[in-house]
Design brief:
It is built from twelve helices and twelve strands. By secondary structure, the protein is an alpha/beta fold. A five-stranded parallel sheet has the order 4-2-1-6-5, sandwiched between helices. A five-stranded parallel sheet has the order 10-9-8-11-12, sandwiched between helices. A two-stranded antiparallel sheet has the order 3-7. Helix 1 crosses helix 12, helix 7 crosses helix 11 and helix 11 packs across helix 12.
Length: about 270
């Protein structure tokens, strides 16, 4: 049995989930997922996906002030499953394996243990588009995103402009470079664009710079990673990007990377130099 506690934001969790499922399928192991509602990803797994063949346990880590009884219960559940694991792999250990290119060694360690508890914000093995296929969006997500999904066509290029607290993306993927690449796509491919950003001011600048018929937005989304609605809308943005012909993404952004992997489409990081 592999017990996975995916961590951090939605994109990071999807990397951990897809890779853990991939390994368990290859090793014929049971996968148990401890899914936490917490700041940065405050939605239940069931709000987002329909899991097939995977046991998902929902807990809260919103703290004693916000969810006293839920936090106590969640801590007890984590302790129970942590005790079932013969080995505990923390986030930094998994990241070290990845950074050092030691996926094969990690897989062998997992294979040798009868039960493991793994906490991770990144992937445990190499993953492909097929790795994400078990993550079927929930009926609510499919219905909520249906209108915007239907507007994406063969000429639609996905654009993800990461701002707010991501200093490296702001520094290395400035808005003027996105404008330049988008104008080239229009000139060379008569493209239109599905655009997502976490900055309303960027949306306004895009609408001033390009004709309305060239831009597709998920207009009513909530930009708030600490709410259920915000995480649902973030997933809809990811799914919409994955349906485009390719993606113009932001520097070091998992949110740009994941949709390209989900859709099996090219990702071009818009960056200086």
């Amino acid at each position: 049995m592999v017990i996975l506690e995916p961590c951090a934001g939605l994109g990071n969790r999807l990397l951990a989930l897809a890779s853990a499922h991939e390994l368990c399928e290859k090793m014929n192991r049971e996968l148990v997922v401890i899914w936490k509602r917490e700041a940065g990803c405050n939605a239940k797994a069931a709000d987002l996906f329909e899991f097939a063949g995977v046991k998902v346990i929902e807990i809260s880590e919103n703290g004693y002030k916000k969810d006293f009884f839920g936090t106590i219960k969640g801590n007890r559940i984590k302790k129970k499953y942590r005790n079932q694991g013969s080995v505990f792999f923390p986030c930094d250990k998994i990241d070290q394996y990845k950074q050092q290119g030691r996926f094969a060694e990690l897989a062998e360690e997992i294979r040798q243990e009868p039960a493991l508890y793994i906490k991770s914000y990144t992937n445990l093995c190499e993953i492909t588009t097929e790795s994400f296929s078990f993550l079927r969006p929930s009926a609510a997500i499919r219905e909520k995103g249906g209108a915007v999904f239907s507007r994406i066509g063969e000429r639609t290029v996905g654009v993800h402009i990461r701002r707010t607290d991501h200093a490296e993306a702001i520094k290395n993927s400035p808005l003027e470079l996105f404008f330049e690449r988008m104008r080239r796509e229009i000139a060379e491919h008569d493209a239109d664009f599905y655009v997502t950003t976490d900055d309303r001011a960027v949306e306004r600048e895009l609408k001033e710079a390009f004709p309305a018929e060239r831009l597709i937005f998920y207009e009513d989304k909530r930009i708030d990673r600490d709410s259920r609605e915000g995480i649902e809308d973030a997933l809809i943005d990811m799914l919409a990007l994955s349906k485009c012909s390719r993606i113009l993404g932001s520097y070091q952004s998992t949110f740009s990377l994941i949709p390209s992997m989900m859709g099996g489409i090219p990702l071009e990081t818009v960056t200086r130099g």
